[in-house]
Design brief:
Pathway: Protein modification; protein ubiquitination
Strand order of the largest sheet: 14-17-19-18
Family: Belongs to the UPL family. TOM1/PTR1 subfamily.
Keywords: Repeat, Transferase, Ubl conjugation pathway
Catalytic activity: S-ubiquitinyl-[E2 ubiquitin-conjugating enzyme]-L-cysteine + [acceptor protein]-L-lysine = [E2 ubiquitin-conjugating enzyme]-L-cysteine + N(6)-ubiquitinyl-[acceptor protein]-L-lysine
EC number: 2.3.2.26
Radius of gyration: 31 Å
Number of helices: 28
Number of strands: 19
Length: 760
Amino acid sequence: EHSGAGQSSSKPKSVFSTLMSVLSTQQFSKTLSNLELLLHLLALVTAAVRTPDEPSVRASPLEVTPSTMVRTNRPDRGNNVGRGSGAGEVVEDGEPQASTNGRSLGGQSVNPAPAILIPDLPVVDIESLAAVLSRHGCSERTYVRVLEILVKLSLSPRNHLVAVQALMETARDQSNIVTSDFSAFLEKVDALETDEEAREKAIAEFSRAASSAELKLLRVAKTAAALLLESKDASKHPLGSLTRLWETLARVLDIVSAVPPGRSDDSGSKHPTMGTTTIPESVRDRSRHSGRRSVPPALARLSPVIESFFVAHGEDHLVRSSTAPTPKPTVTHVAVDKEQTSLGRFIERYRTPINMLLRANPSLLDGSFRSALSHPHAIDFDNKKSHFRSLIRKRSSESQVGTIRVSVRREQVFEDSYHQLRLRTPEEMKGRLYVQFSGEEGIDAGGVTREWYTILARKIFDANYALFKRSAAKSATYQPDRLSYINEDHLGFFRFVGRIIGKAIYDGQLLDAYFTRSFYKHMLGIKPNYHDIEAIDPRYYKSLCWILENDITGVLDLTMSAENDEFGQTKIADLIPNGRNIPVTEKNKVEYVQLVTELRTTKAISHQISAFLKGFHELIPAEDIKIFNELELELLMSGLPDIDIADLKSNIDYSGYNLSSPQICWFWKAVSQMDQEDLARLIMFVTGTSKVPLEGFAVLQGMNGLQKFHIHKVEGDSERLPAAHTCFNQLDIPEYATFEKLKEKLLIAIREGAEGFGFG
């Protein structure tokens, strides 16, 4: 008979404690069927435990004897064990004090249930329960039951502490087994460094030799994470300290991925190898988003350990490493601090295998891999889109809405739709659309709705409504018109447009609607920067760049103000108090550029942006959409364009290069290896939008009319990324020395949304 700390062995044990104690007996520890029956019984008993916010109308089976027990009628659990700890009162040799507060349940007044009592179990019993996770033959059902029991028992601080310690011991044992297996593989492969065929064979053997310890480790990691979920130290998962295991995992990943240490997997000249299959660059890049969901054997074996790493480091972005190097500037909207954590470095280094696992099992982003969403720039667009669609499906399944019937006249589709939808609640807007065009007999089985979206998208940009204006650099992109107030209903219309854009995304409908990059940023909650001025006013953008790059002392006569033309009248807006009387100097010119950028991209259209976002967020929550960047948001809204590489190649001009230049040959080789997603990113990076003219690249528009795609030579090899000038459809490519370097820099530029444009 086992006794808990602080308990006299003469005291009677509770029925539950007795059930727990038999876990370690031979009859149950050696016989799997008996063990599962016992766990089933324990799960039924602990299922009666209620947290303070869960109503209950019956007493718990745990409420049995006057042993040391903890009441769960307090929300704060604290970390200390013993009398007066934060989890609730400790009651010895007495009955609990029932609450006198009545409750209403299901419209009926019921007597409150007595406080639920959790026994402080003997250490050996909790250790026996935790040890079930490492037992040979432990099924998924058994694992789930153990998890449920431990979570309930951990409402007691003492049980919680003991359980976490027991899980950590189990994790160390399984970690040692996994590390030993991985180390043996590494030694074997290192000895075969010059024999590529033998290395491939060794990798294949490794792929087939999966150990049960890898799955056991994952189960222990998930169980510990569940216990820590409500605790104050949730960011400090105990498995995060298994440094040797994680270092060994990284070395194995380097080998099976064929990624040289310190280099990105997308930039290396070696072919990424998984198991016995070497995937050529051309095939790998084109098949990345082709719907293939197979995982190479070696990666499949590593997946439980990789998942364990994510579980163990899932919250370590809350604590930045004190030894992390000073972060370099980044072109994405993701905080650079996150790249300096163990998790951030791991995701950056192994983004290709991680995305392969996500593609094979999209639900990982809702579970063990969800911390990867803190690094969205490392997740491929198709994986983010799949996760986003799953969120929409979940929200849709939770909504009890019917069909939205809309009857519109073709010639008045905007007004009719506005008046019929503007009074609908956000919840009603999530219903299925059924569109009928007046005077037409078409039955809407989806096609009529798609046509309605197409017509409405064109009307949104109709100049007669004065809501949006074409960007100065491109005729294909639009920006809210700061003078839209000439239409007295303009804010109501902007909210309606936000709803329509949100509804289209919610329904998975593609729109022929393209906005400026700064407006996409507003939709994502990202602050625009001065580079975004280029799409609105290319000449003004060029002057801002000149100001930043040159000494303006005695050259320019500017003040901390800006002039706006409103219907023929010039109005002055102060950027700071009394700004019109404060000159712009070399010292404050950066502030001037920042303030004038904010005025042009945000403040001048702040009411329009707010109204649009109000309608947009009624259907698409900000936290759901923020995983995308502004380039990806356009692809989500408007879809991947069908890009004809041959048409592009026949309608391109070169400056400094010619068609036979090595860099140009390498450029087209890199382009030929891109999938449709990266091709869209390339076009978007250079021209400012992924939209391709219906007539092809021969009629591509620029700042001054027709402007072909243009590649400009930058003298000398460089570590700089390619730069773009969207107003001229121009791509600047330095004289890179190798194909590998050119491809690496080009992919980084288009995938990470580089915003230097040759000036930063």
